[in-house]
Give the backbone structure.
Amino acid sequence: MTRRFVIVGAGVAGATAAATLRSEGFAGEVLLVGDEPDLPYERPPLSKAWLGGKAPDIAVHPAEFYAEQSIELLTGTRATDLDCAARRVTVGGRSVGYDALLLATGGRARRLPGLAGNRVHHLRSRADADALRRAMVPAERLVVLGGGFVGCEVAATARGLGVDVTVLEMGAVPMERAVGTEIGQLFADIHRAAGVDLRCGERVEAVQQIHGGLLVRTDRDVIECSVLLVAAGVVRETALFEAAGVGCSDGVLVDAGCRTAVPGVFAAGDVAAHAHPRYGRLRVEHHDSAKRQGAVAARAMLGEDVAHDEPHWFWSDQYEHTLQSCGHPGGAGADEEVVRGRIDEASFVRFGLRDARVVSVLGLGRPQEVMAGRRLLRAGHPVTADQLRDESIDLRRVTRPAPA
Ligand SMILES: Cc1cc2nc3c(=O)[nH]c(=O)nc-3n(C[C@H](O)[C@H](O)[C@H](O)COP(=O)(O)OP(=O)(O)OC[C@H]3O[C@@H](n4cnc5c(N)ncnc54)[C@H](O)[C@@H]3O)c2cc1C
């Protein structure tokens, strides 16, 4: 009997899983189901080059790949029902049996009550990015609600297009939870220097439609704008899975190998609350993790004894700056912080150390040193704060013996 593996969600996790099943030699049926009309694509450019009108190639695989690999790709098709006991899932109204099922449904942009209408935008999909791009007009005002990564990236791209931008962030600085106060303050300065009206600690109370625009009422002011982007984070829709008996808590609960507790059911990517061998249970929203978990899940579906244990990795592009991060998000779990370079000069790597080992690396403008830090983190090699701080020391050599 030919085995059938079904993947629900055709984002980077799902598409990578499908490709990995084939590269690992799976000869059965692979059905990849996604509710968006597009071929699987990568989301990071949506707030950056794509939104800026540069149209980079964002396809995860070329269009012909799926037919060449005998992967049945159903776009514009939603999974609506799941019966784990019978091993059946309903896709596009059709009940399909599976031997193994991967849940890779990602998340969707959080909606806030009372914030709707044709001038109110969210950003998760390519269609969202296209609609936002069309709505952004040079010299007209965009208000961004939320100074997290997506909000800040959109603000930077919009400034590049000549759009007037106000960012409303409830916290003290942008991206504070992920990067901390000092680096958040640096980004606040960068945005303000680029002309963004960044307001921290200011809360939106109501939005009113007026002729040709919107009035955004905050607890301090009234701002008139032509378009509002709500960038208030991501929510995961797990109700369908929970109803079918799959354990969920802020995401689908999976072990290190992306297996749920239900036989034959796996989860990967943004929807997965993954038990990471280094960091414990975490649900991250990073492109790299989604891709790696997709590959690990595919191998687990084939019965391999695998684990996703790679340190988390993400980046954010804002103006000419690329922030890169490796390890535990926000550097939590470190007992010491060391900065190499200067945060106030936007040229630094901040290391988190625990028991004289690197547990997190966050860098700006120093890609080679970030990569060296990533290698130190992976290797678990003992280092001192002085070695990391001292810029005369080549970090690439720290793990190697000194030349004789
Ligand atoms: C604007 C933006 C910028 C980003 N920038 C960065 C960045 O710079 N760096 C970084 O590391 N990460 C970035 N990310 C995060 C990164 O894109 C995500 O972590 C990644 O897309 C997660 O992949 P995924 O496959 O798990 O989920 P998704 O990409 O969300 O894909 C899941 C797919 O499943 C579909 N689906 C959901 N439910 C169903 C259903 N019932 N039936 C069928 N299909 C369904 C969804 O519509 C979607 O197409 C960014 C995200 C966004 C939105």
About this structure: The pocket of flavin-adenine dinucleotide is lined by residues 8-14, 33-36, 43-44, 46-47, 78-79, 104-107, 123-124, 150, 269-270, 285-288, 290, 314-316 (CB under 6 Å). The radius of gyration is 22 Å. The chain has three domains: 4-107+236-301, 117-230, 320-397.
